[in-house]
Amino acid sequence: MREKQERPLPCLPVYVGFICLSYGLHALVVHPTLGAVDGHRVADLFGDLCALSWLGVSFACLPWHDFRATSSHVFIWWTGMVFFGILYIMVPMTAGGAFQYSFASLTEGRLTSAQLRAFWLLVFTPLVLLAVYWARKFHTMSPARRNVFGNLCVTVFAIWLVSYLTCLGVCEYHPHHWWVGFCLVLLSTPTLDTAFDYLLQGFFWALIVDGVVMYDVEITKFFL
Q1: Other beta carbons within 10 Å of 98
Q2: Domain coordinates of the chain in residue numbers?
Q3: Residue pLDDT, tens place only, 76-126
Q4: How would you classify the pairing of strands 92-94 and 97-98?
Q5: pLDDT (tens digit per residue) in 132-189
Q6: Distance between first and last Cα of the chain
Q7: CA–CA separation, 130 vs 168, rounded Å?
């Protein structure tokens, strides 16, 4: 007896629609005082949604991004986006302080020694584990996807290096966490195979969504 297969959903509107829905949850639920604090107007919200929609369209249309828009894959992907978005905001660094919204706290010396240790643990431990996971996955990819992944890694590294060198002696190097999420989503596009891969990309999208919600331009800082 042939197994019943899931019918795929329309990929592009689903991909973009759930990203915008996550933005709404972040803005209205995770940051309920955002409007009072940052004075977000309708134009600001519309601009944020346009930016996220264009990013979603760009990622969804990459020829190597094999996003299978079945109900189960979309649910896992969006669950990762919502869960990590809430976790990113709510998890405390110490008993007396909440997780900072960007890497500025590290460079500006606003962290205590206990918070600094927690910063390195919470940020770089997952990145090391992710690098190990992707390194193992790299050997199981097809030659075409392996070539794409390798080129993306080189490109992302080059952008980070050039931006850092450009900023030396001129301004504070302050990459926003939406940019970190952007790079991770980009690197994940040729890796989607298992449910865990979809969950990971949802995690990375949470960084972009929350970064757009909290984004605040400061002319004297170098934002990516």
Answers
A1: 11
A2: 11-222
A3: 999 888 888 777 665 543 333 444 444 555 555 566 677 667 767 777 888
A4: antiparallel
A5: 999 999 988 999 999 999 999 999 999 988 888 887 777 777 777 788 899 999 999 9
A6: 53
A7: 28
CB 177, CB 204: distance < 8 Å: no
- pTM value is 0.81
Q: Over the chain, what HEC string results?
A: CCCCCCCCCCHHHHHHHHHHHHHHHHHHHHCCCHHHHHCCCHHHHHHHHHHHHHHHHHHHCCCCCCCCCCHHHHHHHHHHHHHHHHHHHHCEEECCEECCCCCHHHHCCCCCHHHHHHHHHHHHHHHHHHHHHHHHHHCCCCHHHHHHHHHHHHHHHHHHHHHHHHHCCCCEECCCHHHHHHHHHHHHCCCCCCHHHHHHHHHHHHHHHHHHHHCCCCCCEECC
CA 161 to chain centre: 20
